[in-house]
Amino acid sequence: MKVLLVGDGARENALADALASSPKGYKVYAISSYINPGIKEAVDKTGGKYFKGDINSPIFVKEIIKEVNPDFGVIGPEDPLFHGVANAFREEGIPVVGPDKECAMIEKSKVWMRELMWKYNIPGRLRFKAFEDIRDAINFILEYGGSIAVKPSEQIGGKGVKVVADLQAYLSNEKRNAITKGIDGIASYVNDKVKVIIEEKVDGPEYTLHVLTDGYTQLPLPLAQDYKHAYEDGIGPETGGMGSISGPNNGLPFINEEEYEKSFEIVKLTAEAIKKEVEKDYIGILSGQMMLTGVWGPTIIEYYSRLGDPEASAIIPRIQSDFGEVLELLATRRLSKAKIEVNPTPSVVRAVAPLGYPLNKTMASNHVINVDMQKLKELGCKVYFGSVSLEGMQLITKGSRALELVVIDNFDKASEILDKCFNYVSSNTKLIFRHDIGRTIQDQVEKAEIVRYTYKSRERKGILGASADWSPNGGLW
């Protein structure tokens, strides 16, 4: 069978590897904006063909579909989904892993997502207020004087994703100027009519639940936790993710089975709500980026309409069943036949990026990076290539996370191995990575216990999700 993969990052490298390793003998074809060496290895190994072009263009993708005539497709990133590439596959009669653009609105628009959750009374929903006029948003913050989170209304690849303001009723001119500058910065990225969304601020350990859904059956994957900030100890600018952890088993050390099931129920209810709202089945991966909070327990921060990255690198290597076949069953709407068998041992992922990421893509681009694959393999480290282009015999950085290094072992041992792995990656520019990923587990456990006590107390009192200063329809009184 022929499968056409769309995308060019580490997540797509992990998907390509799973497809190429399947006992079913898939022939992997791929479309990328540059030649990813990991994806190319999967394509070459299976006798497929690699196409270079605009992965966000339904017209271009249709041309490749007609040439390849694949049995099914797999779309990795969100932008092709937003542009209707999944629609293009289905218009050509090809089943595909990936929701139509109408369904992908759950990720593209935070306002659409929040309104959907309130309309269909889905648990784990945050209160919010949306603004078309930036001045109105600033005035609201200055007058409200409480703890809130400020976000762009659109999904914009990690830029300005969250600005948290803990504001007093009295604000100095310096604080006012900082708020104004921060919101203006967010709004400058947004093309939508609604520029800014302001949400109630919540706190707790974050985690992601990815759910496969073909419109009939829902199948959850193991939990993962993403580490967003660029530098050690969770400081610095937000990134697409500098690493992740998954396990042991289907969970995480700080999320219990009851919370896992509640999270799964929230995502299932959301998939059903999307179908009612747009009158289309959601076929693909619906991922809840969640937080365990004192307000709700499992709470939705945002949704992905695809696998997270680097979460995919933590999850896919732990799946012991044939994940390539699972993707086929998902695309062809036979997911009820699929089984997910998981390695109980945890995984730790750490990304390597060139200096300049995430704020200066130009600075982080066009550097040679060297990887001693044999040494990494000897250490037990799996490598997924991200924003790296194979040009001749050299690997050239493209401005984002270049590599994701994966070790499956207990958290302490995996962390020790990954520390050694960094010695076998070099470049003609400085590389950034985090040593602390996989080493903060106990902190997360203690944080979860505090939050759990709070939400369980609220649950017993019948006030789960209630708040004094936010109205039941999602806004302020």
TrEMBL record:
Pfam families, per database record: GARS_A (PF01071), GARS_N (PF02844)
Entry protein name: phosphoribosylamine--glycine ligase
Presence of the UniProt keyword Ligase in the record: yes
Residue intervals passing through the bilayer: none
Gene3D superfamilies reported for this sequence: 3.40.50.20, ATP-grasp fold, A domain, ATP-grasp fold, B domain
Family as reported in the entry's similarity comment: Belongs to the GARS family.
GO MF annotations in UniProt: ATP binding; metal ion binding; phosphoribosylamine-glycine ligase activity
Upper classification of the organism: Archaea, Thermoproteota, Thermoprotei, Sulfolobales, Sulfolobaceae
Domain ATP-grasp residues, every copy: 114-332
Keyword Acyltransferase attached: no
EC numbers, comma separated: 6.3.4.13
Pathway recorded for this protein: Purine metabolism; IMP biosynthesis via de novo pathway; N(1)-(5-phospho-D-ribosyl)glycinamide from 5-phospho-alpha-D-ribose 1-diphosphate: step 2/2
UniProt entry keywords in alphabetical sequence: ATP-binding, Ligase, Nucleotide-binding, Purine biosynthesis
A biological-process GO annotation: purine nucleotide biosynthetic process
